[in-house]
Design a protein that fits this description.
The protein is of the alpha/beta class and 240 residues long. It has 8 helices and 9 strands. The protein has a 6-stranded parallel β-sheet with strand order 1-9-8-5-2-3. Strands 4-7-6 form a 3-stranded antiparallel β-sheet. Bound molecules: 6-phosphogluconic acid (6PG).
Length: 240
Amino acid sequence: MSNPIQLIWKDKEALSIAAAYHFVSAAAKSIAANNRFTVAFSGGSTPKRLFEILATPTFSNNIDWKKVFIFWSDERFVPHTSDESNYKMSRTALLDHIRIPRKNIFVTPTKGEPAACASEYEASVKAILGKSAQFDLTLLGMGDDGHTASLFPGTTILTETKRLVKEVWVESKQTWRISFTYTLINKSKEVMFLVGDANKYPILKKIFAKNSKLLYPVQGVAPQKGQTIWMLDEAAVTGK
Ligand SMILES: O=C(O)[C@H](O)[C@@H](O)[C@H](O)[C@H](O)COP(=O)(O)O
């Protein structure tokens, strides 16, 4: 496990542009090495801005989308047409504007029972990634309660070790979610957190403190063989 890298940008816009450059370069490297780029998207307003930037020709023309395979690190258990859907957000911000084969987009199933949908999604992950279950890049955000993906404080998924994807009941939101587990996230070659805004400061301060205690789900993200990059803005690291 490599030490996490922290990069601090002036504001959310600068952070998103930097993340877009990083995404282009990560895609190019993976495609050069393995002829494909496997990436997990996340929800939240920060990834949304990244996706909008990636949709502009400057960025999208530099990505060989035919070789990009997209999953979601977590999804709300709502129809794909719902404004709550992370897939819908990604579609409107990015996927509708690029030429990517439909077969490269692995939308989280959200019809029927959450447990069956989670198993089905796990099977898709295994089918595409094979035994290694290693994404080239996993994008994550962080909520102001310290959750990441749908690994919320106090939920049973936090102690799941066998599964790669699981359904989770989130009491605080009275809703089902489908989420990657730590096991899957921590196999990733690279994890990139996108965290902007002053409301993230109280948690960042605690988790980046020397000898920090294990307090929040986000602290369980530690890729075994991969690299974590925190893309932060000044507001998130100063609280101002
Ligand atoms: O579904 C959710 O609970 C949110 O989408 C969440 O997972 C999100 O990633 C963080 O709250 C960060 O969101 P921001 O990028 O908007 O700060």
